[in-house]
Amino acid sequence: MKPLIASALLCLFLPVAVLRAQSANVAPPPAPVTQADLAKLDQRVTAAQSSADNAWMLVSAALVLMMTGPGLALFYGGLVRQKNTLAIMMQSFALMALITVLWAVVGYSLCFAEGTPIIGGFRHVLLRGVGVEPNADYGSTIPQLTFMVYQLMFAIITPALITGATAERMKFSGTVVFMSLWFLCVYAPLAHMVWGHGGLLNASLGGRFPTLDFAGGTVVHISSGVSALVCALYLGKRKGFPKEPMPPHSLVLSFIGACLLWVGWFGFNAGSALASNGLATSAFVATHFAAAAATLGWIAAEWITRGRPSALGAISGAVAGLVAITPASGFVTPVPALVIGLVAGIVCFLMVTFVKGLVGYDDALDAFGVHGAGGTIGALLTGAFATRSVQAIFHDAQGRTLPVGWIDGNAGQIGYQLVGITVAWTFALVGTIVLLKITDIVVGVRASEDQETEGLDLTQHGEEAYNLEM
Amino acid sequence: MKLIKAIVRPNKVDDVKEALGRISLPGMTVTEVRGHGKQKGHTAIYRGKEYDVSLLPKMEIEVVVPDHMVDDAVAAIVQAARTGEIGDGRVFVIPVEQSYRIRTGERSDL
Fold first, then answer.
1. B46: contact with A, CB 8 A cutoff
2. Taking all residues of chain A, what is their mean pLDDT, rounded to a whole number?
């Protein structure tokens, strides 16, 4: 019965519909497009682009937070001995909270408000003036709040990387005080110099020495890696190092952590395009390719020199490649990304196996060997391989694009990269020594010998990572 | 009454248990231990740093047997745990003075 009624209705209305369509065809032509119509259309296009970019940037911000917790926490957590597992994970987690609060109070302003070429001013203290309106300097299609929270995630992971060098012997109180000071006195100026409007090293917003650093090779990796070296030297070796064996307690944890870091790095690098555009895709691809090539570079070097390719080598290689591609990711095509990754994998392998042994410092989890060395290599190679076909960042007075890196014919960029590297190294070296000294006087930096023997989990936090006995 | 303490390869525990079962010795205590004898350890390398793993995992089996069964028990263990390679382990026989059953509190020599 029902189909019959339906077909009857169809027969009844179909002619009507056809007639209406025909009459529409012969209707008078629509009114000419007015300026108001165009403006409305423009508004809608802008709104659509803003929605797409904002969606990607919020996801990227979450991905970068995931790099610290659980990514880095697991990576480092697995590398320490069992008695220090919670302590190192807690340091990463505590920084997620600590840096966030400092960021809201003054950190964002020091990094991104207009100020001197060295450090930002106080205009955005307590996030004043940071709302849903975009800031033309920092992602013209996304709310400044999005930019602010995205950059916060970078500020969190950077000091967390340093804990790899202080692992298994730095007091929790010392870590909290030192990292707070370090964030304000080393990270904030470097971030402002490289990314802030008018910063000394800014390549696109009027810096004196235009240094290319797409996602933080100097700001994040050189700064944390070099500071890590200073911390390792200042703190001294762990008790028993290097005689006593200190093997990683769970490479399974490290493995999961490294995989999370790799994925999170897509937010870190591709997100640094600050938009969901072709540049983001380019950075995404370069990031992935560099990680792959570096993995192969590290394990090949290991296989040749040590006879066996290890799982720890594979994951360390991947991280080294991700570090090195960070400054380059928004400036290079995929094949140079493979080269950068391969070089970083091999060089970082040599740093942590041979150089560390020769010099004899105890960088417990190789924060310097991977982040300091990888970041420096990456910053240099960015100057070599950056090309305007990926991002035309330099223009002449007429607005024509200029060559970017050596591969484009701008060999001088290598010099600017060296300036950036030197500034970052100097800031990190000097800043870290001074701040460690201050921290040492205020609360002390190193755990006592007994605490170190017993483990930081029990002595600093009153807990143990594993209570597996029946 | 003797305590037989056998240190064997971890994968031989089931064979030893079965062999002791065949000569009607059902009770045993097994502990995970580490040690080394003539067997050399191996080397582990973490980021280029070498560690000698000289203490290898073994299982320690303890059985208490009446004097007249000692030879049979030792023979059963040796036969079950042997591979012929270095690292098969050791068997020790130690005198036991007294034995009590906790459930009843009675002294019960085997």
1. yes
2. 93
